[in-house]
Amino acid sequence: MYEIAVLPCDGVGPEVVREGLKVLDAATAKHGVKYETVTYDIGAERYLKTGEIITDSELQELRQFDAIYLGAVGDDRVKPGILEHGILLKIRFEFDMYVNLRPIKLYPGVETPLKDKGPADIDFVVVRENTECLYCGVGGFLKKNTPDEVATQTAIYTRKGTERIIRWAYELARKRDKRKTLTLVDKANVLIYGHDLWRRTFAEVGEEYPDITQDRAFVDAACMWFVKNPEWFDVIVTCNMFGDIITDLGAMIQGGMGVAASGNINPNGVSMFEPIHGSAPKHAGKNVICPVASIAAAGMMMDHLGETAVAQSIETAVEQALASGKLGDLSTKSGVGTSEAGDLIASLV
Ligand code: IPM
Ligand code: MN
Q: Among 66, 187, 213, 224, which is most buried by a count of CB atoms within 10 Å?
């Protein structure tokens, strides 16, 4: 029996999570796998009412689960950063979920804005470092709100943090067994300390993986290659900030934010799964958001828990639903409701 903590949170989070659990129910029932959920009402609504973001005792509780399944965080009524740092980043950091795994895969039947590119060309994985870089919240103000104001925002890179994510990415390139190539995406030509550490670590750890080809790309050029030659990529490893940015671009070339799923993984502890997209408050409660990303995230969660048959069933159902063309263009204007899309995928499990 798996114990799953469910954090629907804000905006469209609750509606996509509902569909993810619908499909998870169908897939686990099919394979005789049992799970239980505990839902937490963490998010903007509660924060606005009580001032509480996430309590210490909730954090303690979350530690006991086999996995965490999250919807989306963010609300226009709350100052930017409060919920993001207070919930999402808090959980990622507190539980040391140092891998942010973001597959970029174009499914057959899904349209990409890239001319002349198809599913054979767009199939790679971004391994985003998830606990360091500009996300540490290190910095401050001097002379705030004066003409002489100074603001600093420091990026932190540790040898340990860099090495463990790079090693995890090499392992993934080996496991995937596709092009056996790991691309380091950085900005070593400008970030002459932080990304020098990344480059040295990449080369050193790479000596343990003679079967994996090492490749490097500056992040600006990588954005260009994503559009021009996505087929060059197999596994990418990158820092937290760049990983955030390039995976929104990645989501677009795989058919949009509606299909992009991710995992926040602590290989030795509890991990959390979520769609890449945000809370999209203006679409909340209208049954117009595509739930595929959230459903695929549930599949990643099962895969992570070692339930490969369940994960495979979800993956196949998603694939068939997308190939059928019945989900339209996956945008909010597709004409296919969130719950109808979930029904369809659940019926294909
Ligand atoms: C993401 C999001 C978050 C991030 C925000 C909401 C803090 O954009 O998961 O990509 O920057 O990591
Ligand atoms: Mn992002």
A: 187
